[in-house]
Design goal:
The structure is a homodimer.
Chain A: H1 11-34, H2 41-48, H3 52-58, H4 62-86, H5 94-112, H6 114-122, H7 128-154, H8 164-181, H9 189-204
Helix pairs in contact in A: 1-2, 1-4, 1-6, 2-3, 4-5, 4-6, 4-7, 5-6, 5-7, 5-8, 5-9
The structure holds a DNA duplex.
Chain lengths: 207, 207
DNA sequence: TTTTGAATCTAATCTAGATTCATTAATCGG
DNA sequence: CCGATTAATGAATCTAGATTAGATTCAAAA
């Protein structure tokens, strides 16, 4: 579709797409910084270098825009973690896989993507309809973690006193809460990652 | 002021206070269920059995009302955890003290107080001015946890590879996130508590 | 150079909610 | 039972923000 014509009509299409992306990115950033309730269309537009009405040329409503940010964020988060996992050798022990997921989650959330940050900071605050539309993607991510834990237990790598569902939620909670307090200026990301991994490894681990 | 007259003028004062409390409680409940952005004054009033304008008889503004809910919640949370800790024998090992704090935090947040739930679900979404006013109380609570961890490390009960600040935030994150997923109908509270304690104890613990 | 359509703007509208206010209902001390 | 004070209400008002309407700009095509 975009690559139809030789080279004319391509620049404009790209520019339009670029503007749309700028708006989306501005929304993600604002959402990740100020949270859902404080995110005004005017803030988003300003960050994208536009007047508020221009947003409607690309998105039917503020709600749709935000929903798209969330969908993208959820997807990026999952994809990043998934690809970190598939990059591992097949014989990687299950607990190491969990630690890799911890690292990937923290990196994408704290360093790589405002979209991912927007998701973890705001998923609990969204209006019902957006939340519904997000549910499928979101539970795919939960499944990924469930699977990690189930495999680890099957391999005897998780203590018996651990309730898998509770543990999964507690760990994801610890990770999801990080954007509330972590700040690049105080303490290195790798430091946080190391501590989180250690906490999880020994927290769940057998022996 | 309240206890001036023998016993007349006391019942009315009590009734008025009761209404005020109902409003406050309704606000806490709504905040804890729907989150800051979706909390309408009309919802609060309805739950308290009043019309919206009646709220203004007791609170100068929606913002003040919410700020008070947060302050109370922060206080309850801290007081509950503090008193659980002071109830322990003096020679309780530091890691057991941490586990007691985990339990107290979860109980007050998930079972005992909508105010506490409101705090952990919404503190990241509040407008600047409310957040500022909350800061003092909130950091008192953080200090409490810092102290627990510092003591534990001093006693050699925390592994060396653990960064204390990161660990504290991760643990508090795990706890604060629980209202997002925990539901009394699926799984017992004590189950969650046990898993959380185990996770923390082994996650931080030496050996 | 005219025409066209995409992209954006300014100015106007619309609406959900918070807030105000004048008034009514309830309560109480005497 | 009577004013006076306290509680609460219904019917406005006020406002921030989202949304719409109608120009306007401008680059590319004809």
């Amino acid at each position: 579709m975009e690559t139809t014509s030789r080279n004319s009509a391509e620049a404009p299409a790209l520019k339009a797409a670029a503007t749309r992306d700028r708006i989306l990115a501005a929304a993600a950033r604002t959402l990740s910084l100020k949270g859902y309730s404080a995110t005004r269309l005017a803030d988003i537009a300003e960050q994208a270098g536009l007047r508020p009405p221009a947003v409607y040329y690309y998105f039917p409503s503020r709600e749709e825009l935000i929903a798209e940010v969330m969908t993208v964020g959820q997807l990026r988060l999952r994809e990043h973690v998934e690809s970190a996992l598939t990059a591992l050798p097949d014989d990687t022990p299950p607990m190491d896989r969990i630690c890799a997921a911890v690292e990937a989650h923290l990196r994408v959330e704290l360093d790589l993507s405002d979209f991912a940050t927007a998701v973890s900071r705001n998923s609990g605050q969204l209006p019902e309809d957006i939340r519904d539309r997000l549910r499928a993607d979101s539970s795919a991510y939960f499944d990924l973690w469930r699977d990690l834990l189930v495999k680890a237990r099957a391999a005897g790598a998780v203590r018996d006193d651990i309730d898998l569902r509770a543990a999964r939620m507690l760990v994801m909670g610890a990770l999801n809460w990080t954007p509330e307090w972590w700040n690049p200026r105080q303490g290195s990301l790798t430091g946080v990652i190391r501590t989180a991994q250690s906490l999880v490894r020994h927290g769940l681990g057998a022996l």
